[in-house]
Amino acid sequence: MAKKRKYYVVWDGVNPGIYKSWADCQQQIKGYPNAKYKSFASKDLAESAFHESNYEDNISKKSPKSRIDPALFAHEIIQDSMSVDAACSGNPGIMEYRGVWTGDAVEIFRIGPFTNSTNNIGEFLALIHGLAYLKKIGKDNLPVYSDSRTAMSWVRNRKVKTILPRVKNNQDSFALVDRGLKWLKDNTYKNPIIKWETKKWGEIPADFGRK
């Protein structure tokens, strides 16, 4: 039986990109300090990982997420804050997102489901929705937690780097993406966006609990 082809993503190396063989990948990482790379079972997965996420996001998927009780670290977590998260069944697949108050996990909003979308898009929309909601109610200094470095970078750079094509059955989620980008262009916010440290604190309070 022929060996199944793997694809290699190099995030940090001589020439970052996607490579079709381990030999080609090695040329980009050999002797390169702290090279960041990972193999994927298909070209689509590799492209999604390279264009839509980063090394840390993908390495964290190697092992099950922690089930630590965040209450153990209550002194480190800002209780008077919002937490946002997204869930997607498949990639792409059926996606929804929501926001909760961090201290008591009371749900503030839940949007979706959307078909043929991605988790990264959902995480981005959750952050935008949260920031807009807090601005609307006059809490534009309240921190917002997210466990997605990718979504945080999209918000920070005001640019969504997704390779998902716009087609008929995902027009609704892309319409929200466009609205979100316009909101970022037309508005300012003071809310600190803070990375939720899942490995240390356990699941973010907005997690959908579907792992």
Structure overview:
- This protein has 211 residues and is an alpha/beta fold.
- It is built from 7 helices and 8 strands.
- It has a 5-stranded mixed β-sheet with strand order 6-5-4-7-8, with helices on one face.
- The longest helix is centred in the middle third of the chain and has 18 residues, at 119-136.
- It is globular and about 55 Å long.
- The model is unreliable at 61-66 (pLDDT under 50).
Query: What's the total count of β strands?
Result: 8
The helix fraction, in percent, is 25-40%
Averaged pLDDT: 87
Query: How large is the count of helical segments?
Result: 7
Arrangement of strands in the largest sheet: 6-5-4-7-8
Relevant terms:
single chain; 211 residues; alpha/beta; 5-stranded mixed sheet; 3-stranded antiparallel sheet; 7 helices; 33% helix; 23% strand; globular
Blueprint of the fold:
Layout: E1 7-12, E2 17-19, H1 22-29, E3 36-40, H2 43-52, H3 55-59, E4 82-90, E5 93-101, E6 107-117, H4 119-136, E7 144-146, H5 149-157, H6 171-186, E8 193-195, H7 198-201
Parallel strand pairs: 4-7, 7-8
Antiparallel strand pairs: 1-2, 1-3, 4-5, 5-6
